[in-house]
Write a structure and sequence with these properties.
Layout lengths: L1 H4 L3 E2 L2 E2 L2 E2 L3 E2 L11 H8 L10 E5 L2 E5 L5 H21 L26 E3 L2 E3 L4 E4 L2 E4 L5 H22 L7 H17 L10 H13 L5
Antiparallel strand pairs: 1-4, 2-3, 5-6, 7-8, 9-10
GO molecular function, one term: RNA-directed DNA polymerase activity
Organism: Araneus ventricosus
Protein name: RNA-directed DNA polymerase from mobile element jockey
Length: about 220
């Protein structure tokens, strides 16, 4: 383990010019079988709070709390953020505050201005929608924006692989169907289990995509 993490060096090459050799002070080699174990060890002291749920997935992390008192919710979130900030400072973990936002999930409309949260000495804006793990979450959880995003992403991929699946392609129909299943269908089915609360009009947008795509014979 010590050899795996210690005495690691790096060098940068631009065209035919090599930089001087530098020492890697933190991090680990990528794509190693030890990576998941090391990740769990590293996050073993991540701040815990009985009122807060921590969602950790590689470098995409989120915290969530719920309640009927918005002031108490904001106070709880701020306390957890302060604890996370202390830990990140202690272990020299860099946080991209430009990609760090806050979003309220609630029914109805409210004219109350929410107190701003702070993190790493910067104010965090309250947003109406956020993107997390490739999924667009709106404050009303209506999934309308994600349906639009998924549709755009789907057709973008279709245009990319159209020479392979179009009418003039010499690939067999079985291979074209295989490409659809491997490249296009995952875009439509990603996170599909949480669509139970999605309006039929938004689900219909994805259902149409699976029926109108022509695969040349």
């Amino acid at each position: 383990m010590q050899r795996f993490l210690s005495n690691r060096k790096f060098q940068v090459k631009i065209n035919q010019v090599l930089s001087t050799v530098g020492n890697i002070q933190a991090g680990k080699p990528h794509d190693s079988s030890l990576s998941p174990t090391l990740y769990n060890i590293f996050n073993s002291d991540f701040p815990r709070n009985d009122k807060v749920l921590n969602y950790l997935f590689a470098d995409d992390s989120a915290i969530l709390t719920q309640g009927s008192n918005i002031k108490l919710i904001i106070k709880t979130l701020q306390s957890q953020r302060d604890s996370i900030e202390y830990r990140c400072t202690k272990w020299r973990v860099a946080i991209n505050t430009d990609k760090t936002t806050a979003i309220p999930f609630r029914k109805g409309h409210s004219s109350k201005v929410l107190k701003t949260l702070s993190f790493m000495k910067e104010d965090l804006p309250w947003e109406n929608q956020v993107k997390y793990l490739g999924y667009i979450l709106a404050s009303k959880l209506c999934f309308r924006e994600h349906a639009k995003y998924g549709s755009y992403k789907f057709w973008n991929k279709v245009h990319m692989i159209n020479p392979l699946i179009g009418w003039h392609s010499r690939l067999s129909l079985n291979n074209k169907v295989l490409l659809f299943k491997q490249i296009l269908r995952p875009i439509l089915t990603y996170s599909a289990p949480i669509w139970c609360s999605t309006a039929k009009t938004h689900r219909r947008r994805f259902q149409i995509l699976t029926t109108v795509l022509p695969l040349g014979k």
